């Protein structure tokens, strides 16, 4: 069972780690390229702020974004801001998300995200945790996949393995970090490929943050994963 209150606390802690790290930058550093193609660090911070507001919309029953074009335009508008403005926006939008999360609500209800995707309201705090943790890594300021909380790494690996389960372009695959194991890809009686590696590298590969060079594949080549 999803513990949304636990996840809200985890989001708060992750946000504080990010704000503390970003607060050590300067205005010039915010304009530098992030690890996401075509995005500066300012783009990543702007996206984090607007995503918090978008998830407030989700929890309050409104469309997540007015449109994909409006989402992209908002990020482009906010990306060039100075560091202090970026920090204030991330902090204030995060507080709005926490306020909505603290309000009495039916957390078992179904909510709608982007592109017609639906989920339980109780999973929205974890989705926000994913945004904060992975985009902290994407900033390229010293926070790496190895620094992610172990609980987060395991749960996000669970989520991404499930996301690729049944995908026709992914062969039946067993994933393992030597302790835990997951199945993903097309349905089959047995896996075609077994992929083994450290937890951070498995997550990085599944999340499109690493190419999988630290992973070993037995039974075939390392599968090419479709974009998330």
Describe this protein's structure.
This protein is an alpha+beta fold and 228 residues long. 49% of the residues lie in helices and 9% in strands. The protein contains eight helices and six strands; from the N terminus they run αααααββααβββαβ. It has a four-stranded mixed sheet with strand order 4-3-5-6, with helices on one face. A two-stranded antiparallel sheet has the order 1-2. Helix 1 packs parallel to helix 6. The longest helix has 20 residues, at 83-102. It is globular. The two termini are 25 Å apart. 31% of the residues are buried. The mean pLDDT is 97.
Q: Number of DSSP helices? A: 8
What low-confidence regions span 5 or more consecutive residues with pLDDT below 50? none
Q: Which overall shape is indicated by the principal axes computed on the Cα atoms?
A: globular
Mean pLDDT, nearest integer?
97
Radius of gyration: 18 Å
Q: Output the helix-strand order.
A: HHHHHEEHHEEEHE
What proportion strand? 5-15%
Which features would summarize this protein structure in a list?
8 helices; four-stranded mixed β-sheet; two-stranded antiparallel ribbon; 9% strand; alpha+beta; 228 residues; 49% helix
Give the structure's gist in a few sentences:
With 228 residues, this protein is α+β, with helices and mostly antiparallel strands.
